[in-house]
Structures are given as C-alpha cells and as structure tokens.
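[Primary structure, fold]
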Amino acid sequence: MVMNSLPGVRKGAASRWGGRPSRRELLALLAAAPALKASVSAPAAPVAIARCRAYDDGVATAMSAMFDDLGGLPRLVRNKTVTIKLNLTGSPGVRFQGRPLGSTHYTNPRVAASLAYLLDRAGARRIRFVESCWASSGPMEEYLLDSGWNVRQLQAISKAVEFQNTNALGKGKRYSRFRVPGGGLVYPAYDLNHAYEDTDVFVSLAKLKNHATCGVTLSMKNIFGITPASIYGDDAGVQEPNENPRSGRGATCHEGKRQPAGGSPAERNPASSRDPGFRMPRIVAELTSARPIDIAIIDGVETVAGGEGPWVKGLRLMRPGVILAGTNAVNVDTAATAVMGYNPRAPKGQKPFADCDNTLLLAESLGAGSADLKNLDLRGLPLAEALCPFG
C-alpha cells in the first residue's frame, strides 16, 4: 500500500513534546515533513520491514518473509554473482562494553549466514562477502576470525561462498573506475576494487545506527567502505596506490586535506568546503549513484544509538528488533530513518542531521531514489509497530 498519509496526525503535536515523544506524536511529525520539494524523477520501490527480536533461527524466517513481500529472491539472484558489502567499521579489537561486535556496531554474523543460506537456496551462482577491512590488506577471512565470526560455518552453507578484502587491489589486476552520473558533487569518479564491477547483484548489508558525521549510517553510508584505503587512505601513495594501507580515510575524504593517490580522479573543486558535514554526505550520495545498490538490507535486531562505533562518546545499546530490505537503497534508508524516529526530509540543523547535510535528500537530488515517505510502498510490519526512537 502506498503511504499517502500516516495515522495519528495531529496539528501541533510536535510542539507538545515535553519529554520522550509518544509513537502517535512521532508519526505525526513524520507525516508533517517540511515542505522540501522531492525530485519528480527519483524512483520508489517496495520496502519490507520484518519483526526479529533475536539473532536466532528467526532471522532467516524474517528475511525470507521480507523477500517474499518484495516479489521473491530467486528472480533477483538466480544464476548470478552476488556481492555483499558488510558493515565491519573500525578495528575488531575495539568493542562496546565488551559485547560481541555483531550485537553493537558490526553486521551480525547470523544475519550474514542467513542471507547466504537464502541466496544459495534461491540459486545464486556465486556469493562473495566483501569489506574494506580496517587498516589491513590481508585476507578477509582472518579479519572475520578476529571479529569473532565462524568462517568455516559460513563457508559450509554453500560452496559458492567466498571473501574479498577490498581495501586494496587484492587478487585483482586493476582497479575499476565508476563514474558519477552528472559529473559528481565532490569527485567525478571513483577507483574501486574489481569485485564491485565483477558482479551481477550488489548488496549492502548494513546496520541500523547513528553516525557522528552523517547523522545516520544505513545502507548508503555502508558503501562508503567500498573506497579502498590504498587510494583514499591517509597513507595512500602520492603517485600510485599504497597496496599495504594501515590507516583510515579521514584526511582524504572527510577533511579534504589531500587528494586520492595519483592516477585516480581528483576533486572537482579543491576550493569547496572542507567541513566533513558537507563532504561526507555528498560522497556517500554520489557513491550510491556511481555504484548502485541492487538490494539493501539493514540489520536492526540489536545495535547502538548515538554514533557508529565505540569511539563515539555517549553511545548506548538499542534493541529495535527489526530488519528492513528493498531494492532501492534511498527508499530503504528513508524508511529506516523513520523507524529511528526521525524525519527523513529533515534539513541540516535538525536531528539526525544536526551538523551535516541530509544524505537522503542529496541522493534524491541525483535521481537515485525517493526520500519521501509518502511515495513509498511499505510492506510487512507497519511503521507504527516498527518505530524505535533513537533520540
């Protein structure tokens, strides 16, 4: 059902919030989004939401039901290579309150295993898990072991399962260039590991959480990690990539203090703002346009609020108990932002985009997808039942 309105709309409801808002009041705020004109050309595809309260056998059941709501998984992946970008942000040695990484800020291994099982059953020819592993160019399997994953168990699901650390060239012979339609907002194109070209279906398997720079980190922000540190890292080579990177991408991408490694496209305008709240939402939006996400899945069973990882002050545990999925990342992230209790069309200065531009609106302006709840076809668990305010 296309959501032309949301229940519980009351004029002035938001002004009566004295403390924690009620679900009715939050839904009223979401329905009364500010008058920011949506792109008429931005597409909208169905978004499925499922209840899942624990990392157990119910994960596969919930995901299977979501894909049924979306028209079935076989039609999307049968006889195809499927590349799955995980969210393994930050070093596996940095944990929040000593808890398993998958219960806080990493993609949970049970969610990844459930997806691999469903893909194999749906007839996928090749199932490749990828991530640009933090400060490493070594085998991804070793990084997963350090993160507490049972790699052999994941490999036992299907002979089609494989892994690729995309933080450098790896097993490839060359980088693949992805041009941003329309010329880009920060960079005109990106040089990425071949795995992002050598695939039929690209999946972003993300986490439902906030982000200190971008407000939220969902399926679109997850693919910022497809940029190899060998080219975009702080210790990237000047004339050529550094195939043994040991740093993040703060100086190049967040702050614009340096250009990517020689041979890769430089910024369009080196005189533009160096503010991370300006740069990062634009980089995320143009990456989504340059390397489109074919299936977006967001793990919101257990997570954290207040930031993307333990290095952010004020982090706290959350149990939304939901998973979201769809074939348009902007649409899925719009629904997920609403699940978190935020207005997806909020301008800079309003939560969750207090100190940054709205990535959803930037991606919409590039024609990547609609960021307007009223345009979305939400299926499965109703938004009112999925709502879990992140504050």
About this structure: Residues 45-383 form one domain.
